[in-house]
C-alpha cells in the first residue's frame, strides 16, 4: 500500500530517510520553514551521495517529493506517518508540535530524537498507541567537508550490520515503518524496546562530545590528554541516571565507558570511515551544541532526582562552559 508520509525537517537525516521512503514507492512531503520551502521549490531536486566502504561515493538525485511551509494549513492534508526529523531542542520550541499532532489524528508519529524524555513528550501528545520510537543508526551530513564527494549535497552512510531499530505499543504501526524503510533499501528492524538502547548510547556519547568540544574538536587532544578519562567518568554518571530513570540496567554495565575502548573505537573510526571523522564531528555537533548541553543538563537533573551523585558529569560540563581544560 502506498503511504502518504510527512517528514518534519529537510536536513541530512530527513533527506536520507525521505529518499529511501520514496524509493519504496511512498509519497514523501517535507515540512520546513517557509523560507526553506521557497528555496526548495525553486530547485526541486535534492543531491545526495551514498558513502560506501572501500568504494567511491554513489551520487543520487531525489525528486518527485512535495514540500510544505510551516505557515500552511496541515488540516488540508491526511498523512499515514509523520516522521520528526528535527533536534530535541527544536522539538521543544514553540507550540508547533501539539498543533501538528492535532492536525493528524490517525497518523503514526515517528520520533527519532535522542533526548531521554523526548519520547514521553511526544507520547503524551499523540497517545502511546500511535507512537513509534526509533534510533538513527545512519550517518548523514551536508558535504563536502574535505572533498570526499565531487559536489555539494547530503552525504550519508548506512553502516553494515546496523539497521535502524524501531519499537512501539502497536506492532502493526512499527512494522509499517520498518517495511517502508526496508523496501526502499534502508536497513531497519522492529525491536522490543528501541528507547533504552538509544538512551544508553546517548548517555555514553554526549559526555564525550562535551569533552571533544572542550578539546577544541581535536580527536588527538581527546585521545592523548585528560579529556578522555574525564569523559569516561562523566558518561558513567549519565548512564547511571538513565538506568535509574528507565529502571533498566545498562546493556554493557560500566564496560562501555572504559577510556581504552573509546580510544580504540575512535582510532578505528578515523581509519575506516569513508568520510573525515574529525571534520564531521566538528561540523555536525557544533550545529547541535544546544541539544548536547540540554541532554547533559537532563542527565544531571534526573540523577539528582534519584539521589545520585553527578559530580564527574557536572565537573566536565562546568569546565567546558568556562572554557577551561
Protein architecture, described:
The chain is α/β, with parallel strands linked by helices and 325 residues long. The protein has two domains: 4-192, Rossmann fold, CATH 3.40.50; 196-322. Helix content is 48%, strand content 18%. The chain has 13 helices and twelve strands. It has helices at residues 12-23, 34-42, 88-92, 96-103, 118-126, 171-183, 195-214, 219-224, 227-246, 259-272, 277-287, 289-305, 311-322; strands at 4-8, 27-32, 46-52, 55-62, 66-69, 81-84, 108-111, 131-134, 139-143, 153-157, 164-168, 188-190. The strands form two sheets. Strands 5-2-1-6-7-8-11-12 form an eight-stranded mixed beta sheet, sandwiched between helices. A four-stranded mixed beta sheet has the order 4-3-10-9, covered by helices on one side. The longest helix is centred in the middle third of the chain and has 20 residues, at 195-214. It is globular. The mean pLDDT is 94.
